[in-house]
Amino acid sequence: MPRAVLCLPTYNERENLEHMIEALARVLDPSQDRVLVIDDGSPDGTGEIADELATRLPWVSVLHRERKEGIGPAYIAGFRWALAEDAELVLEMDCDFSHDPSDVPRLLAASADADLVLGSRYAPGGGTRNWGLVRRFVSRGGCLYAQILLGVRIRDLTGGFKCFRRTALEAIDLDALSAHGYAFQIEATYRVLRAGLRVVELPITFEERRAGASKMTGSIVAEAMWKVPLLRLRALTGRL
């Protein structure tokens, strides 16, 4: 019965995975925490590296998925696994070091007084590093767009560095989470807020990935554009 399960989705992250597991070993307690690597059939051999790590490290597990379906379905699969393992806390983060592993203990500590803790780039004290102007504009604009349309005060709705209490995941309908790209992050946070639960933002510095290619595409941005007003409409009509 782990205290925390950290869900780590991967797709072509062979250059980062082992280094990330080594970094997490320094900030998690292997006697009570677990890392779940969720690999979407990476053609570069990431899944095989994950299996090898799991054979050496009893606190690392691997969930293999047949194909790439997006960050949303990968996280939902991880959440279900963590809940089945009776985890008290469930975290999500990227495998490319854009989220600093040394911030994980801060999220865990903050969860003592919150149902969902968000590692926030746009809370006071947060920020980004090594981003170009266009990337900053798209990210900040997307957060403001979602914040205004949904009528919430959360500043960083698209961030993917989070810690859920078990009760928060149980309070929302995982089957109803339909977004595949980064709109998933908006939808999950919004549903927690609509459930009347406490969400807090913890300032972090987000850094451009160390290795590999970004997974951001035009279709991911487009999904968020139409998904946000649909979420608001469903909330207003009592169908969320």
Task: Describe, in plain words, how this protein is organized in 3D.
This protein has 240 residues and is α/β, with parallel strands linked by helices. It has a single domain (4-236), classed as Spore Coat Polysaccharide Biosynthesis Protein SpsA, Chain A (Alpha-Beta Complex), CATH 3.90.550.10. It is built from eight helices and nine strands. Helix 1 (17-25) links the parallel strand 1 and strand 2.
Terminus-to-terminus distance: 32 Å
The profile of the biggest β sheet is:
7 strands, mixed
Number of helices: 8
Q: How many individual domains? A: 1
Helix content: 40-55%
CATH topology: Spore Coat Polysaccharide Biosynthesis Protein SpsA, Chain A
Mean pLDDT, rounded to whole units? 92
Number of strands: 9
User: Regions with pLDDT < 50 over 5+ consecutive residues?
Assistant: none
The largest sheet has its strands arranged as: 3-2-1-4-7-5-8
